[in-house]
Amino acid sequence: MTGRSLLLTFAVIGAAACSGSTPDNASTEPATDEPAGGAITQWTDSTELFMEHPALIVGAPDKFAVHLTDLTDFAPLRSGRITLTFIPRGGGTPLVVVQDAPRSPGIYGPSPTFTKAGVYDLVIRVESPQALDSLFVPGLTVFANAATAPRDSGGGESSISFLKEQAWKTPGYRSAFATDGALAGTFDAPGRIEPAAGHFAHVSAPIAGLIDASSVANGLAPGVRVARGQTLALLAPSIGEAGSAAYAEARARLREAEDEHARAVRLYAVEAVPQRRVHEAEIRLAAAREALAGYGGGELAAGGRVAVRAPVSGVIADRRVTPGSRVDAGALLFTIVDPAVVWLRVNVPAAQAASVSRTSGVEFRVEGSEQVYAARRVIALGSMIDSVTRSVPLLLEVSNADGTLKVGAAARVSVRTGQREAGVLVPSTAVLDEDGRPIAYVQVEGERFEKRALTLGPSEGGRVLVRSGIRAGERVVTGAAYQVRLASLSTAVPAHGHEH
After folding, report:
1. If DSSP codes are grouped into helix, strand and coil, which group holds residue 214?
2. 59, 136, 282, 479: which has the fewest C-beta neighbours closer than 10 Å?
3. Contacts for 65-68 with beta carbons within 8 Å, 24 or more apart?
4. Which residues are registered as beta bridge partners of 135?
C-alpha cells in the first residue's frame, strides 16, 4: 500500500491451537491429522492485524479470529464495523462478510462460507472511531474438501508466546519497525560533573574571630539559595591576633583615606586646591577600600563585626560554621554552587583523541539514573595526553535548570565522532541488558516473539545502530519489553481468550 509500512507473515497452525506458538522450554506436540489453518500478521501506519483461521473448505462455515490493534496507543479496537471482501482470482462474484462490532475488545469473529474452491485475495475495510483503514491479504486458498487440504504438522516453532490480550492489558506496551539508516560513530568514556567557572565558591573566614551566634542560627542550611553580596555570617575579630591587627590597621587607613578625600573635595569646591589633589585622594581611598575588602568585604557591621558575604549567587552546598565558635583566618565556612549551569569533564581515551573535535556532540547518563542528558557546547579540549590516565580532558557546558545533575556525580558518556556508520536502527528503548549483553525482542508474528542477542554500534537521539541481530523491516518491542521477557520465562502456555 502506498505510503504505508507493511509486513505480512503467514504461519500454519492447528485447528485446535490458537496462537500457534509455544514457550522457549515447551516441547512440540505430536503431529495430528487435522487440516491446517493459518495465521496472518500485518501492520499499516495505524493498525495491526493478527488474524487466525481454520483450513478454508468449501461449504464449511470458517470462523475467523480477527484481532485489530490501534497503533496510536496499542489498544484494542473497541467499536466499529469491519467488512471482509474475498475476491476470487479466477473471476466471479466476491464473497462479502460484514461484522458491525467486535465480540470482545479488539476481536472480531466473522464466519464466511465459501461455495467455490480456489485462491482468493482478501480486502479488510476497518471503519471505527479509533481507525479508518484498509488491509490487503493476498493468496488465501480455499479447498474443495477436507481431504485435499494440507495436514497440520502439529507443534510450532520454538518461540515466546505473548497473546494480544496480554499485550492490550500491559501498560506501555509498544513496538516499531527496525529501519535502515546511519548514525555518527560514537565511543564511551568516563566523566564527572563539576561546577562551572564563576558558578562556584568556597567562602572562608577573612580573619580569625568568633562566629556571631545570632547571624547564623536561623538559616543558611545546605539547599538554601543566596544572592551575591548577601551576608552569610558576622565575625567578631579576635583581639591580639595578627590578622585582627592587620584588619584594624586597614580599617584605620580607610577612615584616614575617607577623611582626606572629603577634605580635598571641600577645598576644591572653594578653589583652594587644584583638581589633582582630589584625584590623588580618590586613588588612596580606592586602595584603602581594596585592602579592607580582603578582610570581609568593606563596611563593619554593628558592634565592630566583620560581615562575611556571598561572592556568587547560588545554593548553599556545604556549611561548616557553628554559632559562637572560634575560627582561624582562612577557615572554610560555606561552599556555594550555582547549579543552573555545570561542566562535564570527560576523560577521552588516547586512542580516540584524534577523532574528537570542538564540534563533537555528547550524550551522557549519571550514576543512579537512566535519563539521557546532552551537553550544550564544548568549553575546552586538551592538547596533551596525561601520562598516568592516558587520556585527554574534554570539558563541556551542560544546562541544569532543574538541578537534577549534582556536582561530583560520575557520568557514563557517549562521544560522537565525525564519522558516520550505516546499519539497522531501532529505538533505544528496544534494547535491554541481560547479564551485561544487549538483547531485544522481535515480534515475528502477532503473538510470537523471539529474543535476539545484539551487536550494537553508536547511538544518537533515542536511536541505536544494530550491527547484527535484527534486520530492517522486523518489528521490535519498544515498550514493556520486560513483560515479554517474563513471558519467555514462563513454563506454562498462557490461557487463551480468543473467540472461535
Report:
1. helix
2. 59
3. 65/18, 65/107, 65/108, 65/109, 65/498, 65/499, 65/500, 66/107, 66/108, 66/109, 66/110, 66/124, 67/106, 67/107, 67/164, 67/446, 67/498, 68/102, 68/106, 68/108, 68/126, 68/128, 68/131
4. 124
Using CA atoms, how far apart are residues 187 and 394, in angstroms rounded to an integer?
A: 14
Report DSSP letters for 260-295, one per residue: HHHHHHHHHHTTSS-HHHHHHHHHHHHHHHHHHHTT
* d(C-alpha 412, C-alpha 189), whole Å: 6
Q: Which amino acid is at 264?
A: A
Name residue 144's amino acid: A
pLDDT, one tens digit per residue, over 436-464 is 899 999 999 999 999 999 999 888 878 99
Report d(CA 274, CA 272) in Å as an integer: 7
pLDDT single digits (tens) 94-128? 999 999 999 999 999 999 999 999 999 999 999 99
Beta bridge partners of 438: 433
**Beta partners for residue 43, in sequence order:** 48
Query: What is the pTM (predicted TM-score) of this model?
Result: 0.60
Residue 23 predicted with pLDDT over 90: no
Of 404, 361, 445, nearest to 160 by C-alpha is 445
pLDDT of 3 above 60: no
Per DSSP, the residues of 299-363 read SB-GGGPEEEE-SS-EEEEEE---TT-EE-TT-EEEEEE-TTEEEEEEEEEGGGGGG--TT--EE
- 379-435, pLDDT tens digit by residue? 999 889 988 989 999 999 999 988 889 889 999 998 888 778 899 999 999 999 999
451-473 per-residue burial string, b: 16 or more CB within 10 A, e: under 16: bbebebbbbbeebbbbeebbeee
Strands (E), 71-142: 75-76, 81-88, 95-99, 107-108, 118-127, 132-142
- Which pLDDT tens digit goes with each residue over 48-76? 999 999 999 999 888 999 999 999 999 99
Q: What is the pLDDT of residue 1?
A: 40
In terms of Cα–Cα distance, which of 48, 85, 92, 54 is closest to 67? 48
Report angle CA 326, 328, 333 to the nearest 5 degrees: 80
